Predict the 3D structure of the following.
Amino acid sequence: MPPKFNPEAPENASLISLFSSLGLSKNAAENLVRAPKQSAPFKALIDDYNLSGKTFDDKQAAALVKLSATGGKLEPPERNYVVQKIVNGALKSPDQVTGESSAIRRE
């Protein structure tokens, strides 16, 4: 049986704090950290695009999470394009990220 999730463990608490600082609710951040297969790509996205220290509204933060989950299907320049659209406020929801990603892949 896997160990019980402890949000106060140092490695979990630092990720929860980082994800919350970007705009995710504490519950959303905690749930994301509970799922390493989802939190690792999100942490990589934050690191790759120097998003640490930036703040987004909850929908933009969720859009970044969506991109981290589905962005592996995009080439790096395409992924960068979508990240920049989220950061600049042109894409504001996970659904918009899905649509934009699908449109890019069809081109």
Summary: The chain has six helices and no strands. The mean pLDDT is 91. The chain has one domain: 10-106.
